[in-house]
Design brief:
By secondary structure, this protein is mostly helical. The protein is about 80% helix and about 0% strand.
Amino acid sequence: MNHSPTLVSILAATWVLATVHVATPARAQAAQPEQPMALRGVMEKLGRDMQAVTGAISREDWALVAELAPRIAQHEQPPAAEKVRILGWLGSDAARFRSLDGEVEHAAMALGEAARRGDGPAVIAAFGKIQHSCLACHQSYRKAFVGQFYGRR
């Protein structure tokens, strides 16, 4: 059989394209960004609550600070399966991660108590402790977390 070079090239190109398409569906799916994890929504809501507290502190609106503090202290949690996935990724750092979250909870409860008393300096000190714990967590885990779960560094 004598095939023209054009026909052979077309058949070879078709075979390569078909093979690449069939052999790499997992790679094609991996390249697509993963759906945002529930933790992202939790963090976004916490961010909004923290911004609202900042505004309330600047206006000395202690009633609003007292209202917002429990929302920070008892913030939503990701679903159980997602928590297991995150804690598995954290491995031996899971205790520190949970400890930082506990610090946020404790400081947010103190924030609410200080706001109910109208104690501005104690409100600011408690809010500073919340921010310190948030920053420590973000600096320790955010970049690696995003890389692990969203494929970005």
